[in-house]
Design brief:
By secondary structure, the chain is of the alpha/beta class. It is 35% helix and 21% strand.
């Protein structure tokens, strides 16, 4: 089974990215045969910035994203979203890569389930 998780919200300020990554990491932990994919859009493109300093009282999204990648999750970032936020030329979490809307569309069609946050 293939599960796609689309995240739209910024890494901090709401708990949507946090909850999405909690689900991704729980899926990886309990269901090794499931392929988990994450696509970061809009302000969620900021989730993939390397060397994050976590605000007081918040979880660390970079650490959670790295855990997912280390367990085999594929992470892609909307290229136009990253460009609009000045992220095209800065270090990203290892394993995360800039992508396209066409690739997201392919993932949607190829996935058994799609979750959005």
């Amino acid at each position: 089974m293939k599960i796609l998780i689309i995240i739209n919200d910024a890494p901090y300020g709401s708990e949507k990215a946090y909850n999405a990554l909690r689900i991704a990491n729980q899926l990886n932990k309990e269901y090794a045969d499931i392929e988990v994919r994450i696509f970061l859009m809009a302000d969620a493109a900021n989730c993939a910035i390397a060397n994050q300093t976590t605000p007081n009282g918040y979880y660390n999204i970079e650490r959670m994203l790295k855990l997912a990648v280390n367990k085999g999750t594929k992470v892609k970032i909307c290229g136009s979203c990253a460009e609009a936020r000045g992220l095209k030329n800065i270090p990203l979490v290892e394993g995360a890569e800039i992508s396209t809307l066409a690739e997201l569309t392919n993932w949607v069609v190829d996935s058994d389930k799609v979750l959005t946050f």
